[in-house]
Amino acid sequence: MRFDVITLFPEMVASALGYGVIGRALDEGRLELVTWNPRDYADDTHRTVDDRPYGGGPGMVMKVAPLLGAIRAAREAAAPAPVIYLSPEGAKLDGGRAQALAQRSRVILLCGRYEGIDQRVIDLEVDMELSIGDFVVSGGELPALLVVDAVARHLPGVLGHAESAEQDAFSQGLLDCPHYTRPEVAEGQSVPPVLLSGDHQAVARWRRRMAIGRTWEKRPDLLESRELSDEEQALLDDYRGDGTD
Question: What residue stretches are annotated with the tRNA methyltransferase TRMD/TRM10-type domain (predicted)?
Fold first, then answer.
């Protein structure tokens, strides 16, 4: 899958994605990253990409021409792809949207800066606006990095184990179960005995029970839009009965 990122800070994006499973996937050719700097499409010697907003107010706004130049160059460079603007006004990124984007061969991520970008760019070239939460950050680069990471995890071969993405939190609309590793006792806290039992069916049931129970405790809003099966309801009732492992 190919990610094209339109950003004033291409080195920042490329550097941040060079680590961990995403960096390995890039090295192995499972992912491709291309960056486009709007300054390269500015029409003055100072490579100006921002100007004062009409109507007054604080801050600066990214100009039309450099952004359109970068977007259109990115569109023409490879297979057709949606242009996604990282914006707090967009639809919120969640597991379902990440999985849907992973079905595409290519996406173009547009990173704003300053007070934002000229609305005409959005009207002319943006296919989707995407938010990472109800807050504002200094630019679109950090949200773009999160989108790349969240989407790439669903691509074949990116994670070390094929089941990892399937068992991630939110993959089935639930939080993840707790995880433990050696030693069996740490600071007086022991690993739940079921995980040491070797009974795979019991372990699977415990993990499912804990995922449903922790979701009920920490994110009950996720269960409001989910119809539990009879088995899941029984696991939740059992969890609520004692709240222990």
Answer: 1-224
